[in-house]
Amino acid sequence: MSNIEKFVNDSIANNKVVVFSKSYCPYCTKAKKILADLKVEVFIVELDKHADGAAIQDYLQTLTGQRTVPNIFINTKHIGGCDSLTAIYNSGELQKLL
C-alpha cells in the first residue's frame, strides 16, 4: 500500500466525517457549511494545498469512482459530493448518520 493510499484510508477510518476538498471550490464551501452548521467535527483535506493533492485525488477516483470534489465520507461510508450531501441533509438522513 502506498503512502497516499494509507493516508486516505487512515483518514477515512479514523475520522467520523472526512471531506476531501479544494479551498476555492464553491461546492466544497457549501458542503463544509452544511456540516459546520450541524456542529460536526470534520476532518478536511484541502487537496489544492496538500503536497500530494493530485495523487490523493487520483486515488479517490480509484476508490470511489468519483474524481470531483468535495468527496465526502461519513462513518467510513462514501456519501459522494455536495449534491448528495445536500439531498441527505434535506431528507433528514444526514442527521441520522451523524
UniProtKB/TrEMBL annotation:
Protein name, UniProt field = Glutaredoxin domain-containing protein
Q: Does the keyword Cytoplasm apply?
A: no
Q: Any idea which GO molecular function terms this record carries?
A: glutathione disulfide oxidoreductase activity; glutathione peroxidase activity
Under InterPro entries, the record lists:
GLR_AS, Glutaredoxin, Glutaredoxin_euk/vir, Glutaredoxin_subgr, Thioredoxin-like_sf
PANTHER family membership: GLUTAREDOXIN 2, GLUTAREDOXIN-1-RELATED
Entry's Pfam families?
Answer: Glutaredoxin
Q: Which UniProt keywords apply?
A: Disulfide bond, Electron transport, Redox-active center, Transport
Q: Which GO terms describe its cellular component?
A: cytoplasm
Domain (Glutaredoxin) spans 17-79
